[in-house]
Amino acid sequence: MALTGGAARLLAKRTPATHEISVDLVSAYVDRDLVVARGGLRIIADATIANAPDFDLLLVPGGVTSTLEQDAAAMSWLAQRKSTPIIASVCTGVFLLAKAQIITDQAVTTHWEDLSELAERYSQLNVVDDQRWIQQGNIYTSAGISAGIDLALHLTGLVDPALPAQVARQMDYA
Known about the structure:
The chain is α/β, with parallel strands linked by helices. It is built from 7 helices and 10 strands.
């Protein structure tokens, strides 16, 4: 499974009974592997949308999504990932899933500040408040950043049921 989280990957390697976890960070650009985060942090991606591998799990991060929502190549690439076995979003990443029509009428959640905009822009969705994360079939959406940690811990349990507790302990996360 491709999962975000160095702690899960490290702990999975320590335990022989678990499956290997590989993580690929994919740039939303066709020809640029440098990603600049909102605070200016520069990250070099493992792949771009032009050469990204297939995934068992696709995790779409949030942030300011308006520019990416207008990027035809990125939205086309994301829409083509609809058959990925597990698709998850953190925070406003749900807007990208909705724009790519990966989610159409499911129950979803996002950061509390963005709930009303999500419901207004995608009225067919059942936008739910006061949930850390929601699962609808193979689609998972989470509220804000710390709720994304809760969801990521849950997703590590799909690899090995003992892994979430081990990862939370390693992270000193209650």
